[in-house]
Write a structure and sequence with these properties.
Layout: H1 5-10, H2 14-25, E1 29-35, E2 38-42, H3 43-53, E3 58-60, E4 67-73, H4 77-86, E5 90-96, E6 109-115, E7 134-139, E8 144-150, E9 155-161, H5 166-177, E10 181-185, E11 202-206, H6 213-224, H7 238-255, E12 266-267, E13 275-276, H8 278-283, H9 298-302, H10 308-319, H11 325-340, H12 342-352, H13 358-366, H14 372-383, H15 385-393, H16 398-405, H17 411-420, H18 441-451, H19 453-468, E14 473-478, E15 482-488, E16 500-504, E17 508-512, H20 514-547, H21 549-575, E18 581-582, E19 588-593, H22 598-601, E20 610-614, E21 621-625, H23 632-648, E22 656-659, E23 664-669, H24 681-695, E24 701-705, H25 713-727, E25 737-741, H26 750-753, E26 757-767, E27 770-779, H27 787-793, H28 798-819, H29 848-855, H30 863-881
Parallel strand pairs: 1-5, 7-10, 9-12, 10-11, 13-23, 18-22, 21-25, 21-26, 23-24, 24-25
Antiparallel strand pairs: 1-2, 2-4, 3-4, 5-6, 7-8, 8-9, 14-15, 15-17, 16-17, 19-20, 19-22, 26-27
The protein binds adenosine-5'-triphosphate and magnesium ion (MG).
Length: about 900
């Protein structure tokens, strides 16, 4: 809804005309229209914003034709902007772009920035330990283009996804990027988006032409000021270019700045890393615990970084474990060096503490959103660079030498700031005191004038007292009237003729003299000139620093990696981790492995370590049974986490680990609800399992935790059984290493028929109908769940427990009665078996009694034999009833 025709006629003041002109261009944003110390919103914007912000909706022109409006003070704008962004709105900031005092007529106004959920720069809002991406998705003919950009740091990357699984891969990748905002072409805005990540994300659709290849390509080369995209290695990635070009266009439109810190575009091939899907990320609690926070996640554990950049690096590494052995060894080599030299490590980490978030500082500096304190923060950080490189030289790791070879102390940047910017500048840029003395002669002269003002005033006061003979004469200043000479009424008759009265007070009069007037003009002029010169100089220094952007970014990357690796070393030292050894085979051997997170939860509980041996042939699949609470899930996850940690270059919680490179880890926990996605528990479980069966390779590691439990027992067992059979490839050259925890004891029979399947169980001791958890994984299966004993531990009423015992007893009886010895592995003739409901997959064994009777041919029997058969049948019947 716009402004009605009638109101147009009435409220056609020049200001409202100006407002409407600007609003027209930013119709999809809430327009913050600066008026003095307030941002005002009008019409529909006012209605929407007042609702979200819970502020009063008033109106302009109350009498004639009211225009709804609301306003917020400009100094607390951030708070309100955040709220609007959270509600999925964009905010266009329209400032007064000239000094109202200087303006002839209506003051000029312009939109200086559009703030969107993905382009916030405010440090109070940004999570320092996480990249803040805005993503762009383009569906090309054969590929999906995905671009991601963090405006706060300038990181800009693209990839292309193709193949039958493209949508799933897109979903996985977006989940890892966790963007605040995604832009898509208008053409697909009505289509379903099953690939959207879970969590808060805002999707904006943009004009289709911005995604067209030629337009996108042009936008990119124009932005980077290059001839082509060859230099970035993405010249031929059409879909990727479409998404990246549209994204840069969108940012230029919203940021209204040249975005100089975005100076490179990095292709990130998604296949160069260990593949981790959304489900695995969640179930291994890699960057978020099951409660949805960072606390108690692997990231939280491994991050002892001294800088936010290091923390962001670890997050990136956890989500993208390496598969290139050389790169893994490089990281491990550095961690080992750091770990084995505790004194040097402490020294190094103490130095890192002084380094600010260089990536985000640079972001603000190049976007002209910085103040002088940001430059000082950069200088403080740069100051430790030489010491840091010295500290690194004390190690003998060849990988560290690679960092040192490209080391850049950025001295010129340091000097530029050090020589020009005062050490303790104010927050604002218009308060003076930005530039050091000695940088600019004119500035120094003007500052001298203002500095000497006090003395000058004191001497004028003295001079005038003497001249006029008035003892209580005071020279002062106030904001409204400027400089004045104050004389009490008592002495009014002695006021010299050249004094001009300015203001009357109860007991005194205030005057201005020609001499004071002249001084006033000089001093106010000086202050204005000081601010102007300081701002020009500040701008020069700022852009000088921006020019070094790529060098600063390069060093920020180096430092973030060193910080991350020193954090790994610190963890390895504190928690006694070992260096994993990589082999060229597919085995995974862990001696005394521990779960890195569970072992830290309660230091008073001793964590019981366990060994693991898996390979792709001899012991390809391990079925783990054991009572509830025994530690099955913990064990499964500890194996997966150890394999993952090794490939991000971290040491691992065990005494000794050797392993081949894993290409994918799949982790599935049965029966988890995804009601928000509108799918049933079991459907989700089966979807995820299908993904595993279709994608696992002999180099993969799979952990299945009670898969199949989301349906009836027999269906569940049957599916679980068939899944294991499918995964078992020990006899076909090798299959994915698999750990399967289950309460279906029937599955332990699989080891009889499949050579690569082995049974293990978690030991418990029974004592007086109670169980003691030993937490040791030992070979062999179990056939008891101890569910009722565990329920007792949980405090279920005794009546319920007693009854449960009775029911269990009955169930066990009937199990023997009906089914006899379960021989569910007999499957050759299953097509020929008559199906009987749930039991269809299991050949029902024939009753031995009937079997015996069928064998009898009465014509062949002697009377004595007939009597024997009769005895035998009676016995069989009795046995069956036992
Ligand atoms: N090796 C261990 N050492 C010490 N405590 C352990 C160990 N493993 C597990 N625990 C403790 O036991 C608890 C239960 O473990 P877990 O959830 O792995 O059992 P589970 O066998 O999967 O049970 P359920 O069958 O009910 O899923 C854990 O939360 C942890 O506190
Ligand atoms: Mg469990």
């Amino acid at each position: 809804m716009g402004v009605s025709a009638k109101s147009l006629k009435v409220d056609d003041t020049p200001m409202m005309q100006q407002y409407r002109g600007i609003k027209k261009e930013y119709s999809d944003s809430i327009l913050f229209f600066r008026m003095g110390d307030f941002y005002e919103m009008f019409n529909e914007d006012a209605k929407t914003a007042s609702g979200i912000l819970q502020i009063a909706l008033t109106s302009r022109n109350k009498n004639s034709n009211p225009v709804p409006m609301c306003g917020i003070p400009h100094h607390s704008a951030n708070l309100y902007i955040t709220k609007l962004l959270k509600a999925g709105k964009k905010v266009a900031i329209c400032e007064q772009t000239e000094d109202p005092k200087q303006a002839k007529g209506l003051v000029k106004r312009e939109v200086v920035r559009v703030i969107t959920p993905g382009t916030i720069l405010d440090d109070n809002i940004l999570d320092p330990k996480k990249d803040q991406f805005i993503a762009s998705v383009y569906f090309g003919k054969n590929q999906i283009g995905l671009a991601a950009l963090d405006v706060s740091t300038g990181i800009f990357k693209v990839t292309q996804i193709d193949g039958g699984n493209a949508l799933l891969l897109l979903a996985d990748e977006l989940q890892k990027l966790d963007p605040k905002e995604i832009i898509i072409p208008n053409a697909i805005k009505e289509e379903p988006r099953p690939w959207l990540p879970t969590g808060e994300v805002f999707v904006h659709s943009e004009e289709d032409w911005t995604f067209s290849f030629s337009e996108a390509y042009r936008n990119l080369v124009e932005h980077f000021r290059t001839q082509s995209l060859e230099g970035f290695g993405c010249e031929n990635m059409e879909a990727a270019i479409s998404s990246a070009g549209a994204l840069i266009h969108y940012l230029r439109e919203t940021q209204k700045s040249p975005l100089e810190h975005i100076n490179t575009l990095t292709p990130f091939p998604i296949h160069d890393y260990m593949a981790l899907d959304q489900c695995t990320l969640a179930s291994l609690e890699l960057v978020q615990s099951s409660e949805g926070s960072r606390k108690n996640s692997l990231l939280d554990l491994l991050d002892l970084c001294q800088t936010p950049m290091g923390a962001r690096r670890i997050r990136e590494w956890i989500l993208k474990p390496l598969i290139d052995l050389k790169k893994i060894q490089e990281r491990l080599g550095i961690v080992a060096d750091f770990k084995h030299n505790p004194t040097e490590r402490k020294n190094l980490r103490d130095l890192l503490k002084h380094i600010f978030d260089l990536e985000r500082l640079l972001g603000r500096i190049t976007l002209s959103a910085c103040n002088a304190r940001d430059l000082i923060a950069l200088k403080t950080s740069l100051k430790v660079f030489p010491d840091l490189s010295q500290a690194l030289k004390s190690y003998d790791s060849p990988s560290l030498h690679a960092y040192l070879e490209n080391w850049d102390n950025l001295e010129s940047v340091y000097n530029l700031i050090d020589q020009n910017i005062t050490d303790d500048p104010p927050l604002g840029l218009k308060e003076g005191n930005l530039i050091k003395a000695g940088c600019n002669e004119e500035l120094d002269r003007l500052k001298k004038i203002t500095r000497e003002g006090k003395n000058w005033i004191a001497s004028l006061e003295l001079e005038e007292k003497e001249r006029t003979g008035i003892p209580v004469l005071k020279v002062g200043f106030n904001k409204i009237y400027g400089y004045y000479i104050e004389i009490t009424k008592k002495h009014i008759d002695r006021v010299p003729a050249e004094y001009i009265r300015k203001q009357s007070l109860v007991n005194a009069e205030r005057y201005i003299s020609p001499k004071l007037k002249e001084y006033e003009e000089e001093i106010t002029g000086a202050e204005e000139k000081i601010f102007a010169i300081e701002q020009t100089l500040f701008e020069e220094i700022r852009s000088g620093v921006s020019l070094a952007g790529p060098r600063i970014q390069g060093m920020a990357r180096t430092i973030s990696e060193i910080d991350a690796l020193s954090s790994f070393a610190e963890i390895a030292h504190r928690y006694n981790y070992c260096q994993p050894e990589f082999t060229n085979d597919r085995s995974l051997v862990i001696e005394n492995g521990r779960h890195p997170l569970i072992e830290q939860i309660d230091p008073s509980v001793r964590f019981i370590s366990n060994d693991t041996f898996l390979d792709s042939v001899k012991q390809q699949i391990i079925i783990i049974t054991g009572p509830n609470m025994a530690g099955k899930s913990t064990y499964l996850r500890q194996v997966a986490l150890i394999a993952l940690m090794a490939q991000i270059g971290s040491f691992v919680p065990a005494d000794k680990v050797s392993l081949g490179i894993t290409d994918r880890i799949f982790s599935r926990v049965g029966a988890q609800d995804h009601l928000l996605k509108g799918q049933s528990t079991f459907m989700v479980e089966m979807n995820e399992t299908a993904n595993i069966l279709n994608n696992a390779t002999p180099d993969s590691l799979i952990i299945l935790d009670e898969i199949g439990r989301g349906t009836s027992t027999f269906d569940g067992i049957s599916i679980a059984w068939a899944i294991v059979e499918f995964l078992h490839k020990a006899d076909q050259g090798g299959g994915p290493k698999t750990l399967f925890a289950t309460h279906y004891h029937e599955l332990t029979d699989l080891s009889r028929v499949l050579s690569g399947v082995k049974n293990f169980n978690v030991q418990v001791k029974e004592w007086n109908d109670e169980i003691i958890f030993l937490r040791k994984i030992v070979p062999g299966g179990t056939d008891k769940s101890y569910g009722i004993q565990v329920a007792r531990l949980a405090g279920l009423p005794k009546k319920v427990l007693d009854r449960a015992h009775e029911v269990l007893f009955n169930l066990e009886q009937s199990e023997f009665d009906e089914v006899g010895v379960p021989k569910i592995s007999h499957s050759e003739n299953r097509q020929n078996q008559p199906s009987s409901g749930q039991l269809g997959l299991f050949p029902e064994p024939e009753n031995p009694l009937i079997h015996k009777i069928k064998e009898i041919d009465p014509n062949e029997l002697t009377p004595r034999e007939a009597l024997e058969v009769l005895f035998e049948l009676t016995q069989l019947l009795k046995d069956g009833l036992k």
